[in-house]
């Protein structure tokens, strides 16, 4: 891959172990750009770099070497890894507007990272059989609709989501908390290779060869959500890593979806609480596809006729006007005369039963 001179110096500096994002930008502030730092180091270690700890300072000094400099790019080429610095035109624009964008992205695979149809599926590492099934089904259905599914290659829900995409021969992006040349968890090495073989991508903000550490994974979750239009939490107990991704998504203005589950299941606690807090409940991949107008399920000719499922009087009063047209919450309140609390409760239950769906613009539509 060809790089401009400024990109090369940027990649060189971001490759130095111990120079994380905070220190990277401190150095740029002092020297204007990475080339300026390179030139300054030619005369010895500047005194204004005392904020670096001993190891980082030693690594930086050792890296101020032409053999090291060119070795960075030789290693990237040998491993078929693309480095995309933040100053590059090829840097995903969807990451530029998030808090603390990665300094440099390291990428294996040719999958576009800035498409309109990118969606994240995340959840617990320890998941139920139903959770595994849901992750695979959502991954497969989204891939069949030409959606690129983003996840973290972790055990459990992430793995199942990636596998579902591959079942549909679709594209999926795995965001790692280590170098893109370090398969983690080790048992997912074959899955990683299958992702690449099927046109997907494996990406990381950590330099090639970087080992996974506990602190890397919460940070990498902001990239999963940042790349995506929305995030689906399939399962997650209190304290789940998937909730970190959801929190990033909320901060980034991304949509949040959740698969409801039993109130007695610890792994359904966070999805259920998200729904109560305003996340969109989904019981089918179509709920996501139709939300973004990425697809539309076929409906029978009598779709506007009376539903075959039994509805109570209040439910029927709410669903009836939605058979004619999509309506907002306020319009439904005016049409039914229900209080806001009662209307909100009815809407939630009908969404969970798949009788109505919330569509873009804050409108509701009846399926039956």
Q: What structural class do helix, strand and pairing data support? A: alpha/beta
CATH architecture of the largest domain: 3-Layer(aba) Sandwich
Beta-strand segment tally:
12
CATH topology of the largest domain: Rossmann fold
Strand ordering within the main sheet:
1-2-6-5-4-3-7-8-9
Counting structural domains, the number is 3
**Helix proportion range:** 40-55%
CATH class of the largest domain reads Alpha Beta
Layout of helices and strands:
Layout: H1 5-14, H2 21-31, H3 34-40, H4 54-63, H5 66-78, E1 82-85, H6 93-96, E2 104-108, E3 118-122, H7 129-144, E4 148-151, H8 157-167, E5 172-175, H9 189-197, E6 201-204, H10 216-226, E7 230-233, H11 241-252, E8 255-258, H12 269-276, E9 280-281, H13 285-291, H14 313-324, E10 327-328, H15 329-336, H16 340-352, E11 356-359, E12 363-366
Helix pairs in contact: 2-3, 7-8, 7-13, 10-11
